[in-house]
Design brief:
The chain has one domain. It is 77% helix and 0% strand. The chain is built from 18 helices and no strands.
């Protein structure tokens, strides 16, 4: 009982500490709250014996976080992006779908239920970690496999992230075109989107929490209605239906200006993802990590790196600016939270806007792409 209470309190408060550390110290900012939460949860898993409640909490956090992330998404703003940005992000989506499918054909003999992992990666590399988890839950992937997949993603994605902050900008500036890609309409949206998607000082204040409470309740209501719909339709808790429904609710409510105007909706959903990351780290067990992680690690590495290479080749052929090519691929892999450090590495703050918008679109479509691909490949 005491152990469970400690875990619940830690899941609530540890992400706040990681966010504050990231805001104050550059080294933590480079690692990012998601990685820090997972790492700390991983370390705690060696100390706390029974962490079963952590996985139960994580399964609740994901469907509630999805609408919150999408409520503030002004998807209509995507039309205002410069054409090269749209083209680059479309190239990324196509590359991820093709390479995820090719990876399935290569690794299905070594990775059980490879179609599900292909779907998870299709969602992951177009929208980020929330899509990976949501798709895994929707497809009924075993909890142990979710932990292993998340570990593989952290290893593969972590290596590339450090490359992004070091050598990738220089390579991009040398081999990819340098064009004037920013449209004046894009710049006019930057201040508005920064206030919506970047946490401010008031995020943890009582006023800020009370301000976001209606949206949190609305997101919980969306989840509850999705659960009810699943029960009515299948007489069971079908997670696939629940995940698709909360995604649809999130997109639908994002077209309401009053809901979209509430500040820090995205950051609240992202905070739930931080909580999830800590909880999933707590669920880690060395007993589950043996040689079975090697083929899955290779699978993740193949899909991510091959997709990136193909994406950059297509951008080179299409004469798309190097910074836009890098930022669209980055936001597809990691989500909007990583836009700013990579933009700083590129020494180009103009890419923040297209990165944020593409990231939100990726969140919105990632679940549909991943689930659809997994179900299709399951027929082969």
């Amino acid at each position: 009982m005491i152990s469970n209470l400690f875990i619940i309190i830690a899941i609530l408060l540890v992400p706040r500490l990681m966010v504050l550390l990231s805001a104050r110290y550059k080294v933590f900012d480079l690692l990012g709250p998601v990685f820090l939460c997972y790492l700390l949860g991983f370390l705690f898993s060696f100390i706390i014996k029974d962490t079963s409640i952590a996985m139960s909490i994580s399964e609740i956090l994901v469907p509630i976080s999805i609408p919150l992330i999408l409520f503030s998404a002004d998807l209509k703003s995507y039309k205002k992006l410069a054409k090269p940005v749209t083209k680059s992000f479309l190239f990324l989506i196509i590359c991820v779908l093709i390479i995820s499918s090719l990876g399935f054909l290569i690794f299905r003999a070594y990775v059980p239920e490879a179609n599900k992992f292909s779907g998870m990666m299709a969602g992951l590399y177009t929208g980020g970690t929330p899509n990976l988890i949501a798709i895994a839950m929707a497809l009924g992937v075993d909890e142990t496999q979710i932990v292993i997949a998340n570990t593989a993603d952290l290893i593969v994605g972590g290596v590339y992230f450090f490359l992004l902050l070091s050598v990738v900008p220089r390579i991009a500036h040398k081999f990819l075109p340098k064009n004037n890609y920013i449209d004046p309409l894009d710049r006019s949206l930057l201040k508005e989107l920064e206030s919506e998607f970047l946490p401010g000082k008031s995020f943890f204040s009582i006023k800020g929490i009370l301000q976001r409470m209606p949206l949190l309740l609305l997101s919980i209501l969306c989840t509850g209605v999705s659960v009810l719909f699943s029960l009515l339709l299948t007489d069971s808790l079908d997670v696939l239906i629940i995940i698709l429904m909360v995604t649809i609710f999130g997109i639908g409510f994002s077209f309401n200006k009053k809901i979209r105007a509430v500040p820090n909706s995205f950051n609240t959903g992202q905070y739930l993802i931080y909580m999830f990351s800590f909880a999933i780290g707590l669920s880690f067990s060395l007993e589950h990590v043996n040689l079975q992680i090697l083929p899955l690690l290779s699978f993740f590495a193949f899909v991510q790196y091959t997709s990136l290479i193909l994406h950059f080749i297509l951008c080179k052929i299409a004469n798309i600016d190097g910074n836009i090519s890098v930022i669209t691929s980055t936001v597809g892999i990691y989500g909007p939270a990583f836009v700013i450090p990579v933009a700083n590495a590129l020494k180009d703050k103009n890419v923040i806007l297209p990165g944020i918008i593409c990231g939100i679109v990726g969140y919105a479509i990632g679940n549909f792409l991943g689930i659809g691909l997994a179900l299709f490949l399951g027929l082969l």
